[in-house]
Amino acid sequence: MIKFKKTAILCVSALMFSGAIAAGDFDKEIDGRQSYMGVLGYNMGILGAMAGEKMPYDADLASAAARNLALAAAMNNGSMWPQGSDMDSTEGTWAKADLWQNFPIVMDQLGNLKTYSEALATNAGNGLSSLQAGMKGVGDSCKECHKRFRAKKN
User: Which class is domain 26-149?
Assistant: First the structure.
């Protein structure tokens, strides 16, 4: 009987512990998506500085940054966005809980980012005016998602 009680206690403890991990331990996912956003932001920074004429236009660098952006936009990153990894449930993120209730909108914006960044990758090296023209769609898709689903950083 004592052996049964010990086994039952161990099983219940294991179930409780595994539930706690599944419910709130999203450090790797949050780190991954913040790194992903950093890659997007880094390349957008280069492209935006050139498009805004805050740095000299460089066709090779513009092409490389636009290709990086397109590759990142095409990446399957769904595992970085588990339910419950929002700012109301987990520390260290600015993703609003509303994001998961509106995932079709998020997926549409990601599709737009992919489409616009692929076009930008094709044209970014063709001169400053081509780069500037291609930045609007990319920027708008980023802004739309961030405006709705990301809180301001403190």
Answer: mainly alpha
Contact 132, 48 (CB under 8 A): no
Sign of CA dihedral 30, 107, 129, 64: positive
**Which structure tokens are listed for 142?**
């980023």
Q: Where are the domains of the chain?
A: 26-149
Q: How many helices (H) and strands (E) in the chain?
A: 6, 0
Is the pTM value of this prediction over 0.90? no
Question: Are the C-beta atoms of residues 39 and 68 closer than 8 Å to each other?
Answer: yes
Instruction: Please state, in angstroms and as integers, the Cα–Cα distance from residue 53 to each residue in 37, 47, 137, following that order.
Output: 23, 10, 18
Token pair listed for 10 = 């161990």
Give the pLDDT confidence of 15-34 residue by residue, as tens digits: 333 333 344 589 999 999 99
